[in-house]
Amino acid sequence: MPVNLVALGAIAAGSVFTYAGIKGLSIPDAVQGIVQGRSPATLPQEYAIDPPVSTPPATGSQAVAGGSATGQAIANDALKYNGTGYHWGGPADKPGNWDCSSFVSYVLGHDLGQPLPGGSWGDPGMPPHTHGPTTTSYRGFGRAISRGEVAAGDLIVWPDHIGIAINNSTMINARSSTTGTGLSSIDGTTRYFHGTEPVYRRVGV
């Protein structure tokens, strides 16, 4: 049977884009890494994540705040995993075996039974079978909101990173194999991701 080179090329291109998007690499750097035979799992995150911020107190301006009841539930659930691990490309089959986007999928799909971009938790191609939706998928998921509207449970999505807001200034995110899953400043993280502003998405009702 002849090999369909066009189909193989499309699969290869899709793999490169996924690899680059999850790892925070430019497409040329991703291609170079693959050509050189470097495993994505052994590479550091291209863009450092800002140091952890303190766990917000139960009350006051830094508490889990704003948004809807669903948003509060998303934020509170995500906070359970503060201090857990990070694994690049992890399928989120257990806590800590996730990267930034599969962590979000675990909170939304596994814990709260919400839909995910392109399907639901446990579907073929979805966690915990495979990594599932990447940041690219989440950039168009839910409803767009402005920076000023960000509240508990909203998604903060860069081209190569994603976090879950717990209030208007702080998010919880799976950051790197060094720093694991924890709290970061929403605005402080921006400077590490190509200098681009994230998009803000509301998935809670």
From TrEMBL:
Q: Which Pfam families match?
A: NLPC_P60
Q: Which InterPro entries match?
A: NLP_P60_dom (IPR000064), Papain-like_cys_pep_sf (IPR038765), PG_Endopeptidase_C40 (IPR051794)
NlpC/P60 domain residues: 68-204
Q: Which residues form a coiled coil?
A: none
Where on the tree of life does the source sit, at the highest rank?
Bacteria
PROSITE patterns reported for this sequence: NLPC_P60
Keywords for this protein? Hydrolase, Protease, Thiol protease
Its family remark reads: Belongs to the peptidase C40 family.
Name used for this protein in its record: C40 family peptidase
- Origin organism is Actinomadura nitritigenes
